[in-house]
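Subject: sequence -> structure tokens, single chain

Hey, anyone have a minute? Need the predicted structure for the following. Not urgent.
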Amino acid sequence: MPNTLEATIDISAPPEQVWAVVSDFKRVSEFSPHTVKMVPLGTPKAGTWTVNWNKDGKKYYPTTSRIVRYEPNQAFAFRMNENFTVWSYTLEPTATGTKLIQRRDVPNGVSLPVRKVIDAVLGGEQSFEADLVDGMQVTLGRIKAAVESRG
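Reply:
Had a minute. Here:
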């Protein structure tokens, strides 16, 4: 059974500055080691669909998602249509800036066909999830660096 995955980082900047980076779809590939491109089909808001291009090592694969939460300076979440996982960023103000939380939730489990693909093509669920957590840490570190350098 897939697990809920979470990573957090403290950023020395207010939520508005963090949000400007996190919600910029054009910069996704700059931060994520797994997402090459994420293109919203319309203005980003709850209900907007996205088309995504992802990679795992040398393997590339397309996905689609739908934004399920879009609250400027607070939270952004999207549900993957292929496996029904929900990826989110939550911004919490702190005394020194912002705590940024990235999560992957699996509210209804992953379908058997998708799990078989993960086992056959992506090295199995445990390995795939470990890579995702590593990628989340890398993503948050890159976002922190960009925000704190005012980029």
